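Subject: Integral membrane protein

B.,
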Amino acid sequence: MTRLFWVVFATSMAVYLAMALWTVPHLAALTDGQMILDMRPTGYSHAEVVDYLAALGDDGRAFYLTVQHRLDLAYPALLAASFGIGFAILYAGWLRWGLIAAAVLGMVADYSENAHVATILHSAVEAVSVEMVQSASFWTLVKSGADSLCYMALLIGGGLALIARWKRRG
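Prediction pasted inline below.
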């Protein structure tokens, strides 16, 4: 199962790197350095979204809706699978299942965020309502919280497993 973890984790990180090194910088360049909505862990306001859309333009919207969202179609499931496999290896009992539930919540929130952001990107700037932005931002916050918890749990569990391994060896 450890090998499966590393294969799925490496695949998810490859997709993440494609976004981090290609699509996100491309979209930031189109918006004078503004971060894409998906990468704002503390959420965003209506005014911030209106400003972002104005800077993004039609070509940027098209790129976000196609290239960025296609990569982000695979990433949430790959990340949740990585977390789930990692938690199955590192933890037992209720903690394992609670962390797996957090990973699934992060995935569901990411897909919900993507759907809400797509609705915003398809809308004319003046048609983007405060409610649309609040809903998208809510899912961004849920995703960020769940994923942060999962990353911390994976690092802590992996660190503890390494320490235990070193102690057994010597």
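The chain is about 85% helix and 0% strand.

T.
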